[in-house]
Amino acid sequence: MGVTLTGHIDVPDGRLAEIRAALTDHIALTRAEPGCLRFDVSESADVAGRFLVSEAFTDANAFAAHQARAKASAWGRISAGLTRDYVIEGLD
After folding, report:
1. Maximum alpha-carbon separation in the chain
2. What domains can you pick out in the chain, each with its CATH number?
3. Treating both helix axes as pointing N-terminal to C-terminal, what angle do 16-31 and 60-72 enclose, rounded to 10 degrees?
4. Residue 22 — very low, low, confident or very high, per pLDDT cuts 50/70/90?
């Protein structure tokens, strides 16, 4: 079944430009990771500053590797402290 993550990140107005600028590289790097099946992030049309996230990885190891890479990346530094609301399935 793999591992999926769905949810959103809320970004305050003062950080939107920085997040938007960093997102393109973060998406490209993630999609190139071994085991990444899907990685989509888009701005909500309904909630200002909300970015909708949908991810799928082949297995828990690929998901864990993604989490570690993202945390140690420029994206990890730029997005630190943002409110995230995720549902993760398939880690059992």
Report:
1. 39
2. 3-89 (3.30.70.100)
3. 140
4. very high
